[in-house]
Amino acid sequence: MKVLHLAAVNYGGAGSAALRLHSSLRSRGVDSRMLVLTSRGDCRQVASLDGSLHTFRLLRLINKAYLKFATKFDYYFQTQGLSLGVSPEYILKTAGFFPDIIVAHVLSNFLSFQDVRALHQITGAPVVWHLLDMGMMTGGCHYAWKCNGYENSCVSCPALRFWVDSNIPAKVLHDKLLSRHEINPSVVVAGSSHLANQARRSMLFRDCRVEKILLGVDPEMFCPGNRVEARRRLDIPEDKKIIFFGAQSLNEPRKGMEYMIAAMERLAEMSLIAKADILLLTAGAHPLKASMTKALGLATHHLGLLKGGAALADAYRAADVFVCPSIEDSGPMMINEAMMCGTPVVAFYMGVAPDLIVPGETGELAILKNPTDLARGIADVITLGNEATESMSVSARSRALSLCHPAVQAAQFCQLFEEISAAKHSIG
Predict the structure, then answer these.
(1) What predicted TM-score, i.e. pTM, was given to this entire model?
(2) How far apart are alpha carbons 382 and 404 in whole angstroms?
(3) Segment 318-372, tens digit of pLDDT
(4) Alpha-carbon Rg for the chain in angstroms
(5) FRET label pair with 393: which of 121, 224, 293, 403, CA 20 to 30 Å apart?
(6) Phi and psi for 53 in degrees, rounded to 5?
(7) 251: Cα within 13 Å, side-chain hemisphere
């Protein structure tokens, strides 16, 4: 079976997720190839269009720069309607083959739905839309917050502060729908139940088959290890309860920093563990504000923006618990990674958390936007005895291996590919 993956890049969060699936499929003997706009590293069977599309690259940069100012801070909005402006024959020539299956991962600032439709029409290949956030099913935003415009029309988009044409998100969604209706079969794969349910409600995918397949995590990179040694490598105390929280940017409202701070205040008020025995470990682009840390009265340590999996894996290993206070999320991947390291997770009932966390066994779930309940979950984990702590760690690793091992993800995709192909041939 020949599988072609479409993604803007093969690095970063979404790009790396697409690359991992591509690599896992190849390890199963699938003739998997990946087409990206920009590539990093020497990756097997990854073709890049970047060198031949200078005009498009410039247009892409202009659009990204404009949207940075036009979009409200709470939202992540990207151009969805850009077309490469090259023929499907050229795209396939660059990819190196005619696929049996097309997997569309990340299209923002890369391909339009019209491009995908053209590839489908010339190859006859079914399309699998791999959702890593909401970007595929909206007029541009990757996280819709309370807006349900993606369920009907995306008019009056709340993500935009200003726009030359305020109807552009609605037009983009309409154009997507026209193209999607001409792509049959279309199957949707979401990385969490939360995202799958959003797809089922969406105007774009509500009449499609929607499946949930959790994202794979490298079990060799993200694995349990010696906690003391990890703390020494990170230069953090060996004798404290470490509560770890991280994100690409701690300032993003959807990552829930205000709820994390409130939860830490509630935790201190519970007096179940002395303040002096707790250290809040953070990672991301920006450290906590000094005023926040002073008000908390807790020791803090900021690791900065961690580049590469080794340092991040050490942060998980060093922690007694990983806390995810996200209030609007499709993942995050950090939950998958923490549990693969055998680190219990406490999170709001959001994103992938309900798919992975078994309360009392692998961590705790808290009521969304309820910092008191989040503090209760943290307290439940960090006050466990040694035997119970070890049992929870083992359970977290075991559950992650059963649901997030790359081989498991690849096997589920292969089964889906076979079902789609069989259905196509039976109709034909």
Answers:
(1) 0.93
(2) 25
(3) 999 999 999 999 999 999 999 999 999 999 999 999 999 999 999 999 999 999 9
(4) 22
(5) 293
(6) -130, 60
(7) 7
